[in-house]
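Minutes, structural biology subgroup

Action item carried over from last meeting: produce the structure token record for Pyrin domain-containing protein (Cyprinodon variegatus). EB confirmed the sequence was re-checked against the source entry. Recorded below for completeness.
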Amino acid sequence: MRLRSRGLQTPWLGHLRLEPLQQRNSEDLNRKELKKFKLFLKRGPPGYPDIPESAVEGADTTDLVDLLLKTYTKDALEVAKHILTKVNRNDLVSKIDKYLTSTH
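Output recorded by EB:
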């Protein structure tokens, strides 16, 4: 799945989707992981700004993509990778790295 946000193609962000009514794919974040992801996003990684709780709380995954890109612009992937590591989804970090390697 490819999501478009602010004109940038970000296929890896499709892995952040949460589809509770469909069978969960092993690459998706479950509800608990998504909750943790939002918590870490509100706090912001070291050296990066926090995102206001009010913006994160009601956000769906598409909104989170927009928040990442709006807040961290060119560093959005690095911030996402940092947070995914914190929620123990190194498999998704590897996918991002493979994607970045294949496109450069």
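Discussion: The two ends are 20 Å apart (CA to CA).
Next step: EB to file the record with the rest of the batch.
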